[in-house]
């Protein structure tokens, strides 16, 4: 990133929270010390064995210890940022750190306690106080609140909390959240209400609030638009956007044993956070030309704040206790890197999407409409007055009338008109010279006129109300937003800001002196004695050696952290590869190639939604005939004329039967089966079988008799039909005795019947 005159670094501050009850009760060692004067955080290694190891020192723009007050942070660090937002810059405040270290405390704090309110409520106060003290400026303030959880964006202010929003990009205004609701707010109370609604929605959806809030990013957005008359006599609008970001907990997510869906979930939870880290690395690296903003929703949305045209402050929150030392060091290193990001803040002047401009134009349009209405009326009245004999100068006076007079005037006008109509109505009623019919007609006419009059009046009033409502949203200092602080409070504020500024300068000077000290170490070269030279040089050596050791230790630590990270990434990669292989295996073995090709052909990547989708199936490209049925064919397969429909109902004629072909008698299908052929059994075998199967009382029947007289001999047939044996009668049994003789008597009535498909 090239350095230009207007570029400035991301400001990084560190805040260490106090020990909490539990930590105190468990007597955890305090390993973090904070040097507020120098802006340094010093971390000791808690392990006994490494007592000789030097403490690690990190330097930041400013640091806050456990006694730090919310208001100190605000005055020193956040106020300048919010001030620049009021000037039309974009600004972002990130709270970064492990869960439970005070991110939410810093951002929101304790809402009902003015002492412990966080940045968000303090900025509300700041913004509206600023507006109330402004002069000749019009402001419009609106707020949005969203949450990113598992790479899904949720609008915390919308009624439908199940809906997920998408990111969109426009060349002129950049990345934005589509359909994100925003509320125009007129006072601190209103914007606080917006925040409360969002917070409630945040906790309602979550099954476990703690886990949810530690894994989701919450972004509160305040947009301040300001319109002011420029030197060129034109109104200019500046738009400043303040993003207040409470990030997900930065602690390492345990991924052990996670596979498939769970693994995906685990990698998704902090995708935005790791992408943020990658973006920071790429920005600081200086060699990489590609910054992976697009890797996550968070980085895409806050692209401007990282290496873009916004002002950015990052608050790194840490805990003081020994058991957190690993995470604390990670946080400190992470934020230390962020210090090197360069932004080029720029004022947003007259952007295309300024809502204030739309408001102003709409108000002007409505006012013009109102003007036209009253103009018409006035002219009518003036004509009347002129008829009465007054002079014509009235006209001009009338047009320069101011609002209040106009209001009175309007009331008078309506009353006058109404009274006049009423009088006329009465006159008609009392006029006996008119025929009843004529009277009724006239009365009706008058009534209609009165109704019209009323409607017109209502419309005018509605218009006026609308203008009023819209105007009330545009804040003008001293007019519809009044500063309630008194002189004393104002002085106090000013003093506080001065002190904050002084502190900042002091710290900067200290830091500069420190670095200069090291540089000048070599310059003091005059020694009075050899001993002194030895002493001084030994001291110098010791100091440099200590520094060398510190740097070596740091290198070692960073290398270790890198190795860990790499191993984790490799593990993730292995798991994903395995997953992919499995999917390939399934596709290759269980999905026909043809089907696979079809799907591959239909699949496409939707850039907007960042998701793979499939095109709908149509036989021909853009063939909508497949999809929709013409209106004239509802209930039919094709459009039918009225005539055809009637004919279908009236006459059983073939001509119009096109639609119900299926109701015609079916043609018999061609026969596809063969006649059944009995297996041929030798007569001897048949006879033996027959004997064996015959019941005892049937034995008397001579087998030879079957040939000629079975069909007609009653006793024999009777005995056959009604066997008295205890054996169950089966079809086979009753038919087999007769069948064996088929070859010799094909036309026999006892010939077995085939089952179906043979015409009777
Ligand atoms: P996070 O949002 O990072 O998970 P919280 O803001 O919820 O952490 O803080 C955890 C607890 O520590 C809360 O009870 C909060 O009140 C307390 N806490 C954090 N920072 C401070 C601080 N600077 N002073 C006093 N209490 C703090
Ligand atoms: Mg939190």
TrEMBL record:
Coiled-coil regions listed in the entry: 436-579
The name this protein goes by in its record: Kinesin-like protein
Entry GO terms, CC: cytoplasm; kinesin complex; microtubule
Stretches for region Disordered: 370-413, 705-760
Compositional bias (Basic residues): 373-384, 721-732
Composition-biased stretches (Low complexity): 733-749
Residue ranges, compositional bias (Acidic residues): 390-409
Keywords, in A-Z order: ATP-binding, Coiled coil, Cytoplasm, Cytoskeleton, Microtubule, Motor protein, Nucleotide-binding
GO biological process, one term: mitotic cell cycle
Composition-biased stretches (Polar residues): 706-716
Subcellular localization(s) per the UniProt record: Cytoplasm, Cytoskeleton
Residues binding ATP: 97-104
Source organism superkingdom: Eukaryota
InterPro entries xref list: Kinesin-like_fam (IPR027640), Kinesin_motor_CS (IPR019821), Kinesin_motor_dom (IPR001752), Kinesin_motor_dom_sf (IPR036961), P-loop_NTPase (IPR027417)
Species per Swiss-Prot/TrEMBL record: Perca flavescens
Kinesin motor domain span: 9-341
GO molecular function: ATP binding; microtubule binding; microtubule motor activity
Family of the protein in this entry: Belongs to the TRAFAC class myosin-kinesin ATPase superfamily. Kinesin family.
SUPFAM superfamilies: P-loop containing nucleoside triphosphate hydrolases (SSF52540)
């Amino acid at each position: 990133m090239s350095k230009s005159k207007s570029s400035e670094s991301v400001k990084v501050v560190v805040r260490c929270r106090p020990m909490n009850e539990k930590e105190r009760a468990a007597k955890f060692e305090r390993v973090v010390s904070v040097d507020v004067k120098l802006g340094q955080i010093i971390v000791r290694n808690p392990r006994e064995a490494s007592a000789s190891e030097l403490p690690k020192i990190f330097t930041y723009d400013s640091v806050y210890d456990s006694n730090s007050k919310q208001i100190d942070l605000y005055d020193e660090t956040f106020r300048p940022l919010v001030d620049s937002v009021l000037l039309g810059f974009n600004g972002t405040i990130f709270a970064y750190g492990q869960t439970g270290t005070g991110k939410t405390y810093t951002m929101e704090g304790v809402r009902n306690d003015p002492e412990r309110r966080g940045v968000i409520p303090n900025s509300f106060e700041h913004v509206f106080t600023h507006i109330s003290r402004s002069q000749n400026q019009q402001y419009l303030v609106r707020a949005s609140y969203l949450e990113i959880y598992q790479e899904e964006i949720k609008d915390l202010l919308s009624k439908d909390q199940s809906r997920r929003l998408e990111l969109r990009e426009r060349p002129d205004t950049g990345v934005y959240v589509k359909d994100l609701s925003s509320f125009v707010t007129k006072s601190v109370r209103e914007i606080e209400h917006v925040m409360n609604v969002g917070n409630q929605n945040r906790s309602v959806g979550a099954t476990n609030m703690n886990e949810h809030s530690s894994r989701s990013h919450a972004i509160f957005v305040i947009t301040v638009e300001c319109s002011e008359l420029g030197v060129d006599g034109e109104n200019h609008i500046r738009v400043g956007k303040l993003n207040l970001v409470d990030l997900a907990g930065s602690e390492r997510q345990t991924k052990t044993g996670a596979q498939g869906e769970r693994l995906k979930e685990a990698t998704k939870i902090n995708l935005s956070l790791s992408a943020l880290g990658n973006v920071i690395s790429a920005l600081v690296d200086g060699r990489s030309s590609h910054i992976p903003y697009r890797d996550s929703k968070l980085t895409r949305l806050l692209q401007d704040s990282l290496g873009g045209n916004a002002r950015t402050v990052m608050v790194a929150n840490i805990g003081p206790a020994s058991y957190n030392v690993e995470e604390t060091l990670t946080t400190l290193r992470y934020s230390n890197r962020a210090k090197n990001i360069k932004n080029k803040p720029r004022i947003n002047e007259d952007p295309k999407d300024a809502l204030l401009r739309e408001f102003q134009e709409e108000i002007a349009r409505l006012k013009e409409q109102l003007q036209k209405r009253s103009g018409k009326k006035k002219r009518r009245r003036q004509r009347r007055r002129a008829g009465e004999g007054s002079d014509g100068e009235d006209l001009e006076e009338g047009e320069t009338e101011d609002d209040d007079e106009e209001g009175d005037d309007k009331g008078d006008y309506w009353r006058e008109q109404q009274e006049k109509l009423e009088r006329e109505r009465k006159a008609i009623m009392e006029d006996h010279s008119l025929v009843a019919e004529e009277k009724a007609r006239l009365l009706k006419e008058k009534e209609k006129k009165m109704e019209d009059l009323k409607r017109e009046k209502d419309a005018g009033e509605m218009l006026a109300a609308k203008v009023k409502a819209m105007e009330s949203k545009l804040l003008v200092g001293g007019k519809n937003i009044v500063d309630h602080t008194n002189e004393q409070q104002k002085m106090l504020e000013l003093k506080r800001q001065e002190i904050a500024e002084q502190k900042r300068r002091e710290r900067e000077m200290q830091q500069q002196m420190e670095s200069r000290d090291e540089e000048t170490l070599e310059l003091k070269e005059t020694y009075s004695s050899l001993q002194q030279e030895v002493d001084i040089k030994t001291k110098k050596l010791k100091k440099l050696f200590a520094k060398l050791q510190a740097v070596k230790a740091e290198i070692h630590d960073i290398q270790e952290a890198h190795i860990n990270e790499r191993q984790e990434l490799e593990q993730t990669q292995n798991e994903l590869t395995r997953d992919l292989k499995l999917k390939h295996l399934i596709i290759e073995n269980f999905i026909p190639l043809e089907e696979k090709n079809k799907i591959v052909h239909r699949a496409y990547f939707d850039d907007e939604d960042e998701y793979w989708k499939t095109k709908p199936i149509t036989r021909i490209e853009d063939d909508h005939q497949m999809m929709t049925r013409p209106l004239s064919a509802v209930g039919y397969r094709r459009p039918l004329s009225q005539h055809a429909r009637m004919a279908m109902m009236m006459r059983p004629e073939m001509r119009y039967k096109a639609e119900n072909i299926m109701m015609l008698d079916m043609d018999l299908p061609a026969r596809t089966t063969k006649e059944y052929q009995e297996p041929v059994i030798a007569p001897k075998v048949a006879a033996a079988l027959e004997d064996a199967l015959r019941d005892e009382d049937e034995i008397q029947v001579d087998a030879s008799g079957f040939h000629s007289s079975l069909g007609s001999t009653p006793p024999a047939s009777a005995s056959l039909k009604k066997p008295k044996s205890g054996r169950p009668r089966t079809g086979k049994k009753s038919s087999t005795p007769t069948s064996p003789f088929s070859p010799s008597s094909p036309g026999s009535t006892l010939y077995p019947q085939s089952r179906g498909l043979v015409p009777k």
